[in-house]
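Researcher: Go.
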Amino acid sequence: MRDVIATGQAPQAIGPYSQAIRAAGLIFTSGQIAIDPATSQVVAGDVSAQTERVLKNLSAVLAASGSGMEKVLRCTVFLKSMGDFAAMNEAYGHYFKQAPPARSTVEVARLPKDVLVEIDVIALA
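Model: Structure:
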């Protein structure tokens, strides 16, 4: 069984992918970037502001799936610059205070819409 998850509380997919898929008791999200779903525009600001928006988007997708940030098992963080690691990490920490999930963080050459950060997660359904 495989269910497509979609919500208007997060940016709509801009290509042939789903916001998330629920399968085998897990939620697999697509990478979220710092797009405000109300305006469909990238939020202004530094990596902290963008990380905050990304995590709000992920929270909305997980809520639509019946899950939540407290059920996240694994995150992958893609940064435009590892120089932004500390600022991203501080904003990220506000969402994962206790028993944080496993995580990988990598620097990438470029992200969609030239954002500074993209994050995807795997969570319990």
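Model: The beta strands are 2-5, 20-23, 26-29, 35-36, 41-42, 72-79, 102-107, 117-124.
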